[in-house]
Amino acid sequence: MSEAMLDRLPYARFLGLRTVMQDDALTVIMPFADRLIGNPMLPALHGGSTAALLEMTAIAQVALSYPRLRLPRPINVTVAYLRSGRPVDVHARATISRAGRRVAHVMAEAWQDEPGQPIASLTAHFLLAD
Amino acid sequence: MSDTFLDQIMPQLASGAAHTHALGFVYEGYEGDRVRIRVPWREDLVGDPDTGVLSGGLVTTALDHVGGLAIWLALGTFRPIATLDLRVDYMRASVRGLDLVTEARCYRLTRTVGFVRAWAFEERIDDPIAAAQSVYMITDEAARAPNLEARS
């Protein structure tokens, strides 16, 4: 169910996100497209597109783990940029560090060729209930 | 010289790349050390189709980008920069159909690092959708080529 969840979200479609399910974990892929380029000189992906991928991955993972909810809403997100995003596909995975009654803490990482060499990481809180 | 930068180069930096162009970013100009980008509301920028609220990822992208403009405004010229990190607090949902406006200010600039605060809102900055605090590395032109080689 959650595999198709991102397909419902217009901005996830704008970014071209694809969801792959492995065991209980989601991997979200942002296939390379020219419209993701933020720096044409390097060239490099716009950091915002990578941040959006990370946030969408976190939302999808929370929605998968807590299917009773409407869409989890972000309270805050922190993104650290570790490497320049080259013009190739980006993959992302999220882990729920803790989920209470109202708030979930989620961490996520994005990488390109090597999972051990992340290009960005996210730490975020999501509201689970209104 | 600097007027050419502010009046001709800054608008290109605001919306000239493929991603910012695709998102429809519009340069709104600067006043003092504050600079603005407007993002006209569009259906495909929405994060939740049931409410029409803009995607958090879009808000983050606009805040990241306008923060970069604030660095260039503070520098008064173009230098390659890279976002080191970015924190966004989401205060409330955006309103369906209303443009997103972002404003940023670089409140401290060193030779290598710039510190920025930025806000996202529709009509009034004191009624924000989101607020950001971010740090940008300012690349030394001379050190740039070796770094790029090391990366590839």
UniProtKB/TrEMBL annotation, chain A:
Record lineage: Bacteria, Pseudomonadati, Pseudomonadota, Alphaproteobacteria, Caulobacterales
Domain Acyl-CoA thioesterase-like N-terminal HotDog: 44-126
SUPFAM superfamilies: Thioesterase/thiol ester dehydrase-isomerase
CDD domains: PaaI_thioesterase (cd03443)
Gene Ontology molecular-function annotations: thiolester hydrolase activity
NCBIfam families: unchar_dom_1
InterPro entries, alphabetized: HotDog_dom_sf, PAAI_dom, TesB_ACOT8-like_N
Protein source organism: Brevundimonas variabilis
Stated name of the protein: Uncharacterized protein (TIGR00369 family)
Top-level taxon: Bacteria
Automatic annotation (TrEMBL), chain B:
Domain Thioesterase: from-to ranges: 52-118
GO cellular-component term (any): cytosol
Annotated CDD domains: PaaI_thioesterase
Species for this entry: Brevundimonas variabilis
Keywords in alphabetical order: Hydrolase
PANTHER family to which the protein is assigned, alphabetical: 1,4-DIHYDROXY-2-NAPHTHOYL-COA THIOESTERASE 1 (PTHR43240), BLR7284 PROTEIN (PTHR43240:SF7)
One MF annotation (Gene Ontology) recorded for this entry: 1,4-dihydroxy-2-naphthoyl-CoA thioesterase activity
Protein's UniProt name: Uncharacterized protein (TIGR00369 family)
Taxonomic lineage of the native organism: Bacteria, Pseudomonadati, Pseudomonadota, Alphaproteobacteria, Caulobacterales
Stored InterPro entries: HotDog_dom_sf (IPR029069), PAAI_dom (IPR003736), Thioestr_dom (IPR006683)
